[in-house]
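Researcher: I've got a protein sequence and the SMILES for adenosine-5'-diphosphate. Could you write out the 3D structure of the bound complex as structure tokens? I'd like something to compare against our soaking experiments later this week.
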Amino acid sequence: MRAQLALDDGTVFEGESIGAAGWTGGEVVFTTSLTGYQEVLSDPSYRGQIVVMAYPLIGNYGFRDAAMESHRPHAAGFVVRWNAPAGAPASGVGSDPRGVDLDAYLRAWGLVGITGVDTRRLVRHLRSGGVRRGMVSTEDESHGDLVARARALPDLGEIDLVAQVSEPRPVRFPAEGPRIAVLDCGVKQGIVHNFRVRGCDVTVFPHDATATMIRALGAHGLVVTNGPGDPARLGAIAREIASLWEEIPVMGICLGHQILAIAAGARTFKLPFGHRGSNHPVRDETTGRVAITTQNHGYAVDEESLTGTEFEVTHHNLHDGTVEGMRHRELRVFSVQYHPEGRPGPQDSAHLFDRFLDLVGRSV
Amino acid sequence: MSSAPAPPRGDLVKAMIIGSGPIIIGQAAEFDYSGTQACRALREAGIEVVLVNSNPATIMTDREIADHVYIEPLVPEVLAEIIARERPQGLLATMGGQTGLNLATALNEMGVLERWGVRVLGTPMDAVARAEDRALFKATMATLDEPLPESETVSTVDEAVAAAQRIGLPVVVRPAFTLGGSGGGIAATLGEVREIASRGITLSRIGQVLVERSIAGWKEIEYEVIRDGADNAVTICNMENIDPMGVHTGDSIVVAPSQTLSDRAYHRLRTAALRIVRGLGIQGACNVQFALDPASQDGEPYYVIEVNPRVSRSSALASKATGYPIARVAAKIALGQRLDEITNAITGGTACFEPALDYVAVKIPRWPFDKFPGVDRTLGTQMKSTGETLALGRTFEEALLKGARSLDIGAIGLWHRMIEGWTDDDVWARIRTPHEHRLFALAESMRRGASIADLNAASRIDPFFLGAVARIVQAERAAASDPDALRAEGLHRLLRLGFDDRAIAHFSGLTSRDVRERRLAAGLRPTYKSVDTCAGEFPASTPYYYATYEDEDEIPPARGRTAIVLGSGPIRIGQGIEFDYCTVHAVQALKQAGWEAVVINNNPETVSTDFDLSDRLYVEPLTPEDIRAVVEREGAQGVLVQFGGQTPLNAAIPLAVAGIRVLGTAPEALDVSEDRRKFAALLRELDIPQPQGWTATSLDEVMAIGRREGLPLLVRPSYVLGGRGMVIARSLDTLEEAARDALVASSGPVLLDRYLEGLEVELDAVADGTNLVVPALMEQIERAGVHSGDSLALLPARSVSSETTGMIIEYAARISWALQVRGFLNIQLVIWRGKPYVLEVNLRASRTVPFVSKATGVPMVRLATEVMLGRSLAELGHQGITLLGRPERWAVKAPVFSTGKLFGADPLLGPEMRSTGEVMGTGTTPAEALRRAFVAAGFPLEIGRALLVSVADRDKAEAVDLGATALAQGFTLLATPGTAAALAVRGVTARIVSAQEAVALVRGGRVGAVFNTPTRGHRPDRAGFALRRAAVELNIPLLTSLDSARAMLEAYVSSAELEPFPLG
Ligand SMILES: Nc1ncnc2c1ncn2[C@@H]1O[C@H](COP(=O)(O)OP(=O)(O)O)[C@@H](O)[C@H]1O
Ligand SMILES: Nc1ncnc2c1ncn2[C@@H]1O[C@H](COP(=O)(O)OP(=O)(O)O)[C@@H](O)[C@H]1O
Ligand SMILES: [Mg+2]
Ligand SMILES: [Mg+2]
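Model: Sure. Here is the predicted complex with adenosine-5'-diphosphate in place.
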């Protein structure tokens, strides 16, 4: 079945349908990760976005539950070049059906996708023109109609995406270690996992949890997580956090880092096409060491706006010099724009979880 | 030895770089690429570079690349001498492969580095030792608790056997400090353990082997890692071997990035790679190899296989597969720069990042087996391939099919003519035991109905890859049976899977022309995408492209007149690095002449596929169809076919037919030189003598000719897949035998030539149709009958009378006029009874062009290129027909063989070329030049050592003088009974040894050199064969022609120090 992808700037890409039939709309973004297609699909930060995989082969090592970063895929749609099943075709030469392929996987989740697309052209288009609203449809509509529908889509910034992905009720994973409160703005399981393997007693709170609820737990530390959308909308969360960081160590990751900046009184801005991939070099200005990091964000903290706040910049991106990390001058509060948990991506920064637990340790 | 980090820029003024020497299996052009990049990087930093390499066919030994170039033997004594003269403060040893590393280790142990205060740049020697010495490595991995397969390091055969019993069979036995797994292997029985261990212990520089649990069948994964002195480390890419553990990575089909590793597994191993590299203390580039349990989901369990603490074949491949210039960056790190201080030449951003790919890169090895009748074609832990191809595609299938095409072995898709002869057993044998043709066997087995499950069980190859092959075979079927497959959409699907017109035609029964027309009618042309290290995330200006069928094409509009230089593809015997040298110089000449220079080549090891050499680089197969597509896209003025060896020359006619302009000598003329009949006619017409020749279609005919015309005759089939099995028939038996073989081997008739056993002479010239310039005449030390590529060549010729020389030049002129040669002219002649006969003419750059250029200082490639662009030699300063005056130094080209690595191969000289590389030695006398060449070729000889002589009856008379000379020069003689008797009669005393003793003495290292000529025809005589194998496997000088033996004695008349001599 044919499918098309239309962007709000009028560009249309032809391809074949993969996954569910029908149509889907969202902000079209690309990631350059070579592996981790399933982690990408199930990362809540992609809520409302149609994800383009720059790497052309998808599905090549199969699908499995352990690769899920949340209970379900969140991407609004999926754009790939080549559905490359882990095994042989179900019928015909060498036939030997094994595992699920991308098509079956997307179908199972009712996700609309398009394959056979010149994804490199699309990536280059988004890189030079910036991210765009787009529609993927398997229905046969004129280019014009589909483009019009893409233009009619709301800007992601106007939607309360965090509320859509945050788990409604607190969940606790009891253990002997320090009690860590995780404020779920769209948390990836990798983050929870990193604290649990370090023996922490982890409680995941919904995004709208109040400082009081977190105090009630007697948390030794607070982690503000990644998530979708425009941080500027999240002033409420920021206020709750600001009222806690005097008391307990706070670590911000990705969206969490941006929320801390807002709490500090700084500003964020939207990047032309974001940072999404597993190969972003970040320099820790305090040590001079560079780490290769996983990134997935469309907004960044405005360095200017941090001057005069109680925070100082600790990390920069080597590619565009944007802020990748900051810390509070006195308090035990720090944050990074990237994903120390990887998934997909390198584990080079996993030590940040230990650094945070050291801070926590001193307060336990 | 100071393991201190490289000195701060500033107090390092002069640095020495060691090249890797001649091309041998396991060490090919990749080190010319890395060495050249390193030279450039150092000079950019204002450092004076001293370059040493014995291989003249390299770019790094060009005067322009380094400040002081020494084409000298790569032995510690000579290097010590050069260090004493040049006094470099730094030594960069990690660019010259295992050779460079071993030499640095030796110089360090000899105290040379300390004595002259030479710092090792980049990875310190103790880190090298930690990675290279199996025991140290094991200890280091233990401290990092990185898992190694259970193993024991031993230094005797008995210890090896005991270890194998403790570990349990099968085991892998691997020597320490060797190259390409020399002497390694998997042993399933204790007998095999003994055999492999004894070989390994002798081959290992430190007499050590590792006996290790076999994990054959696990996934084999490599990571290319770069670390700087400030401990920043990145992985440039990882690579997955499609052939699982058990097949040397150099012999595996390899894909980048890995395809069957989950994100968790990919990063589990990446993390391990970085820990290991930090633990070892690498400062620069290195390669980490892992074995991963095929059932693993998260990257465990895995084992560490080895670390190469230097740039390697793999890092060259990784550079070309990603666009990231590993050697260049490694060299800057060696100067003390931090990764984040180095810029990524491609994006202008930082070099401190990890490339993202948006294509698949597939490497396929090319093996030399076709040159060695009866050699074992199966693959194991010891590398056997001579070269490799790189193919890029947007699907794995596309890259695989382009790779198969690039091999230049006549594959059509994954089909090959040879398959027709295969029984089901043949097919499965090639799948169960890794084999040169396993890829084609896999496809064939699927055509015959095999299931992925069975194939996975038999080969342990991951179902993902088998599935891709299945999709290709399924598409073949569609092309054959489904009419839709040949309509627009269907064609598009086939093309996107990587099929070319020719393959679609083959499977559908259409002609290539039909397919092409349908394709163009459907508006389907390849688009070209650029390799930019960042998957399109950042603007990049790399002029490095590959073809694929997509919407967007990224080729910028050409700015000026454009010419396309065709490279030579994978390195193989007969078509080696020499042609990359020519390709690179042609590009430089084009640019100097103000043209846009475009290169098409698919060999990832070479300088010509370095993205910053040409104006645009296309990594593509070199078939007429793929070339044509590029020419059309470029709108080029023409193609240059004379630089890349036979491959581009073969494409010339089809390209011309397709209406593409071939610059230089006209395709029709090229055809005359290639077509035996037309060529013979031409020589007759020009009244130029040639050996009498006959064509016979039956055995009777052959024998009749043999009886009528008399022997010896040279017999060759008119056409054979790869290699032609040329044989010299001196007796009617041999003639009959050879004729039979020839008739089976080839569809066509048998070609017979009168064998003229005279002095072989060769010349390389540049002509413009009117003028002709010959830098020098070369004479082969071995009489005709030994392939010119395998014989010692002396420049200038010393035994050709000026009168004969005159005739030869005259012939060259006549030929160049008759064929209106514009460009190169290579002529091989034999002088017989005082008269020159022309054996062969090649209207292209020959193997010897780099050697001649370096020996005479004449920039032959530049001249030839200018002529092809339309200038006359007169304008270039070469009016008329000229043989240039003799250069001030004598030069000798010596061949280097890799036969030791090819089991069952008989290391005999003959009319078929078998050498993989060459070295050059120069001197004020022929003897001195010869000695340098012998030493450089790995044939050192101390006066006083025992020479073992065992020759065929017809050589015995000659052997006598030889023996006498040897004794007079102070050598002692050992001889097998027959030979000894012949010597004794003439009063030359030699100790008599039986054939068995002879072999034992050789294996025991008690023999300085072996002079052996074969007793029977071309079929290996048992005793002689054993003796020759023993010699090559233990790197003991073996001379199978009395001419070479005589030359060796001439070379070793004195053993005075060799004074290193800087080039220019
Ligand atoms: N324990 C083992 N079991 C099975 N195969 C092995 C084992 N160790 C090495 N090999 C195979 O042997 C090849 C050569 O071994 P390696 O250590 O890489 O030597 P080299 O220095 O020649 O590269 C590897 O590429 C791998 O395929
Ligand atoms: N008629 C001949 N008499 C003596 N030697 C010959 C004759 N023809 C060929 N040879 C030997 O065989 C070698 C290879 O033959 P050639 O025609 O040059 O094949 P190639 O194309 O492989 O170079 C030559 O270098 C020469 O030594
Ligand atoms: Mg290896
Ligand atoms: Mg020849």
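Model: Chain A touches chain B through 60 residues (CB under 8 Å). The two ends of chain A are 59 Å apart (CA to CA).
Researcher: Great, I'll pass this along to the crystallography team.
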